[in-house]
Amino acid sequence: MHKVKLMTVFGTRPEAIKMAPLILELKKHDSFETIVCVTGQHREMLDQVLGIFGIDVDFDLNIMQEKQSLTDITVNAIKGMEGVFSKVTPELVLVHGDTTTTFAASLAAFYHKIKVAHVEAGLRTHDKWFPFPEEMNRKLTGDLADIHFAPTAGAKQNLIAEGVAADNIFVTGNTVIDVLPYTIKEDYYFKTVALNEIDYDKMRIVVVEAHRRENWGRPMENICRAIKRLLREYSDMVVVYPVHLNPAVRDTVLSMLDGLDRCVLVDPLDIDDMHNLLYRSYMVLTDSGGLQEEVPSMGKPVLVLRRETERPEAVEAGTVKLVGLEEKDIYREASLLLSDAREYLAMANSVNPYGDGQASKRISGYLLNYYGFSKAKPEEFNR
Fold it and tell me: Which residues contact 281 (CB under 8 A, 6 or more apart)?
């Protein structure tokens, strides 16, 4: 029997997290030869995720350099993919989301006349500078893609408005929700020792995850000042902040928050430590896109430390709130959830619009039908 060669390409920790359950699902089907290629746009954090899920890599471009620029990542990824395609020609390249690896791999596939499937397609802020460079990465990838796996009906409508044929779009839910059963455990013991020393029964844990490029400088300082005010105000609150390794983030956070009572600063966490911390948290303050999707499935409110979001469904559903980057606004909205039980429960009990844990099965089912191995497509995600 002919096996269809499918190549997944990713390069960062968030991509790896969201692609891992899809890779595991595709590998269940004998109809597919699933090839894994990583660019290594991130290195250590990427390797952690691959190890947790037991995913073996077929091609590793290892492009990461010290102080690499976006140009470095783009050029080296395209050149690296050219070398991969000279050794193996897949029938379809699957990329994820909005990273520079995603755009570069899609462009390289286009140059070799290989079809592209875009997982988590159709997210838009409609501002090419925000988030930078992610908004343009996903738009350009959308122009290059042949199949668009949109996480929500809203993302599908964004693509249709840009001229993508509806027949080439399939709504799946988000694969990040598929990850949670692999990682969350009631009796979990943290590998990061400091996290085992927190009294999760008596203290309210506020997880902070902020590192985006557009928040460097004054916005990051505002976030830290708001955290300091909250710690002074609420004695039953513990802040846990996994601090990104980038010096532009690290220097600001450590200079303003290191040594504060009830403020636990740790290095970036691997996925099972992070998910189990989020599961035990009271609420989350973040500029991350992925956390806006996965945390509501745990019943935790999310305050988004950005001025815009490409995930408006969560705002409409009430699972997240966009609070901006001014100290007073961050403090006010976090304080409201810490002091008003009704406001807290309204967010915590809202239904997550991003998935039901079946996205990877929908994608693999679609591809089985697309290549003639099954007679019908699965039902689209509808929430």
Answer: 205, 206, 207, 240, 300
Asked if residue 268 lies in contact with residue 191, where contact means CB atoms within 8 angstroms, the answer is no
**Is position 179 within any domain?**
no
Specify whether 98 is catalytic: yes
Are residue 49 and residue 105 in the same domain, yes or no?
yes
Contact yes or no for 299/280 (Cβ under 8 A): no
Total tally of structural domains belonging to the chain: 2
223 Rama sector, left if φ>0, alpha if ψ -120 to 50, beta otherwise:
alpha
Using the structure block, give the residue that is written with the tokens 């997550």: 352
Model confidence pLDDT, tens digit, residues 289-343: 888 888 998 999 999 999 888 888 889 989 999 999 999 999 999 999 999 999 9
Q: Which of 29, 42, 211, 275 is catalytic?
A: 211
Q: In this structure, are 320 and 284 located in the same domain?
A: yes
**C-alpha span between 361 and 176 (Å, rounded):** 13
Q: What CATH number did the domain enclosing 302 receive? A: 3.40.50.2000
- Does the active-site annotation cover 213? yes
Alpha carbons 304 and 177: distance in angstroms, whole number = 19
Same domain? For 366 and 340 the reply is no
- Span of 38-47, 84-93, 283-292 with lowest mean pLDDT: 38-47
The pLDDT tens digits for 201-222 are 999 999 999 998 888 999 999 9
Rounded Cα distance between 56 and 33, Å, is 13
- What whole-number distance in Å separates Cα of residue 353 and Cα of residue 345? 17
Asked if 88 and 65 touch (Cβ cutoff 8 Å), the reply is: no
Domain span holding position 264: 191-349
Among 25, 134, 272, 273, the active-site one is 134
One domain, residues 159 and 211: no
Residue 304 lies in a domain: yes
- Which backbone phi and psi does 77 adopt, to 5 degrees? -70, -45
Is 211 tagged catalytic? yes
